Structure formats: C-alpha cells, structure tokens
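Hi everyone,

Forwarding the result from last night's run.
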Amino acid sequence: MTAGSRGGRDLDDLDRVFSALAHHSRRTILLVLQLRGGEMTSGEIAGRFDHSWPTITRHLRILEQAGLVHVILRGRERVYRLDTGPLFTVGGSWLRRFEPPS
C-alpha cells in the first residue's frame, strides 16, 4: 500500500485518531467537551486541567489534526467544538473488523 492509496489514507486517518486517543488528557478533553454540550473555549478547557498552557494547546492541536475537534474563532477566543464523526467512521470501521462472524 502506498501513502497515496485509499488504504494508505485510511491507515493514516486511523493512526491520527488512535494516536489522539492514546493520551489520557486528550480523552478527558473529549469527555469534558461532550459533557459540556460539545463546545468550549480554550480557556474553559484549560481551566479544567493542571497542565501548563503550552501542554493544553498541544493536546488541542493533536485533537484538531485528528478531526476530533474543530476550532471556531469568535473575536479573540478560540472555541473548540467536538466532532465525534471520526470516532465512528475511522475507529468504528476498524473495530468492526474484529466482530465475530454471525
């Protein structure tokens, strides 16, 4: 499989999503967003953690690159909106490969 092939792109998407989910803080950010209605400012997210600002922004950037959150600019604020689509399309399709035969 080459990087430009459909299978290669699927594997790249899978790697991005699973890598983003591999860190406890990033999974927690997703849960916090879900529990808070799916949308929060970067400051609201950062206020929920004891991490430094650069650490939080790095986690948010990884989640954004994986397509799990989208950024909306509202004035000077960055609002992060949860997108669960990749969890189900990328992660779900991979997990379905392991379903027992009917």
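The longest strand covers residues 69-74.

Cheers,
N.
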